[in-house]
Amino acid sequence: MNATLFRKEIKSNWILLVIFLGVLSVYSVMITMMFDPKLGDSLRMMADSMPQMFAAFGMADVGTTLLEFVTGYLYGILLIAFPGVYIIILTNRLVAKYVDNGSMAYLLAVPDKRRKIVLTQGIFLLLTLVLMTAYCTVLILAVGKMLFPGEMDTAGFLRVNAGLLGLLVFFGGACFCASCICNESKNSSAISTAVVVYSILVQMISQAGEKFENVKYATPLTLFDVDGLSAGDGKAWLMAAVLYLAGILLMGTGILRFCKRDLPL
Amino acid sequence: MDVIEINHITKDYGQKRGVFDVCFSVKEGEVLGFLGPNGAGKTTTIRQLMGFIKPDSGSLSILGRDCFREAGRIQESLGYLPGEIAFIDSMSGMEFIRFVGKMKKMKNLGRAEELMDMFELNPSGKLKKMSKGMKQKIGIVCAFMNPAADTFILDEPTGGLDPLMQNRFVELILSEKKRGKTILMSSHMFEEIERTCDRAAIIRKGKLVAVEEMEKLKEGRKKIIEVTFREAAMAEAFAAEVPKASYQIGGKRVTAEVGKNLDSFIKKAGAYTVVDLELRTQSLEEFFMHFYGEGAEQ
């Protein structure tokens, strides 16, 4: 890893990270605070009034425990879509943008291998994803502990977050790969956006009604099994492992391709 | 010893763009001009030397190391000035110079400060707001500031510089040459190369036309002189004396190509009353035609 470049990326991207952490904080805290059996009833009434809409957002049968409530409302879409957008923006900035505007020439005109430079960018991405997941986990746990002491199944919640990180690593890997293989940053953004939006959209369709249930096999989001992870189900662990593995493989593919290919600098 | 070796490289981009079977080398301590019109393949060759792109066939090496596979090692002792200056726009000039210095693992910026003084550069502003000339100066500082560098690859180094700064640049090249550094610089202007280089490699439409000693090229280069006389009769008489002079009947102006016969040309013109004299050097294209004859067209 190139420490100078890593520091440069921290300096260039911390604002982006803070903005997304801010947005995630608002939702995490709000939803967690809303946990209240009575308020839960009114939310459920709302859900009953437009079941398809709630189902599409993965908020169909939100349970009664704090864990079920939080994961039901946050881990269905909010904590996937917002980090997804963050990943699209960041991955594009980390590689494709430098190639597109030509400044990659300066990053490569250094006594380091190409691999080391692009690996630094990949590590930066992964570390911010870990940071983002850890931040949300700690924040929700803290708010839960403060307002509803003893209500949270901490172990189950940590398992769900381990799964969430797997999903973000997968998105990160896919988008990073796109960033590595594209000469123009607009192509990189287009592919990344397509991957994230497609995945989320297909999941929403699959949840909207039984007719479309089988569509769920066409989205990687299915591999993030919130209920299974909450329960500590072995199959859910396996699926999460597939997400991690696929993400790392995609990232590796991007890095290898970047090292071998012609760059328009 | 050859420091930079380019061995029969071909990089075909289709539609006759790219470089085809280009082969030349730069010796240790030599300044070699890489001369050719826009789009001739200069930058394509330099990109391959930098390891940004791979040749379809052939090989390139710097100090015996393969330019693509061992680019990282080569960079330890290489200074590079890109033809299209692209910095990280969010930084200020000084931040960028510091960043590049750290990326190159340099211990201090002493040499960079010397260069900034030399080019009267104040790099404190944002790069985004800088003029082309300012950016070019920053590029030059970044290329030359590493004391560990002993080979330089410069792609159109004087683009955007005013004549005064172009002169400073020539001084810089000459002083680096004195220190024994090896330099490859590309240009589409003969004058720029003329003042600094020992030899020139000339490329045209992706193919290497020639690698010649600078002295020989200078000899082959003609100047076009346009002399205006006081009277038409003088012009007529003068035109008759000078070979290959063009003259319009009744006009007062004589145009001629002058090479080695400059002295006799001037002395002959001196016999009449000269009202005006204009001097133009051949463009690179004209030069090719003269140096290599019409055959250069193929």
UniProtKB/TrEMBL annotation, chain A:
Keywords: Membrane, Transmembrane, Transmembrane helix. GO terms for molecular function: ABC-type transporter activity. The keyword Transmembrane helix applies. The keyword Membrane applies. The chain crosses the membrane at residues 12-35, 73-96, 117-142, 162-182, 189-206, 236-259. Pfam families: ABC2_membrane_2. One of its GO terms (cellular component) is plasma membrane. This is ABC-2 type transport system permease protein. It comes from Lactonifactor longoviformis DSM 17459.
Automatic annotation (TrEMBL), chain B:
InterPro entries: AAA+_ATPase, ABC_transporter-like_ATP-bd, ABC_transporter-like_CS, ABC_transporter_ATP-binding, P-loop_NTPase. The keyword Lyase does not apply. Keywords: ATP-binding, Nucleotide-binding, Transport. One of its GO terms (molecular function) is ATP hydrolysis activity. Residues 4-230 form the ABC transporter domain. PROSITE patterns: ABC_TRANSPORTER_1, ABC_TRANSPORTER_2. Pfam families: ABC_tran. Gene3D superfamilies: P-loop containing nucleotide triphosphate hydrolases. Belongs to the ABC transporter superfamily. This is ABC-2 type transport system ATP-binding protein.
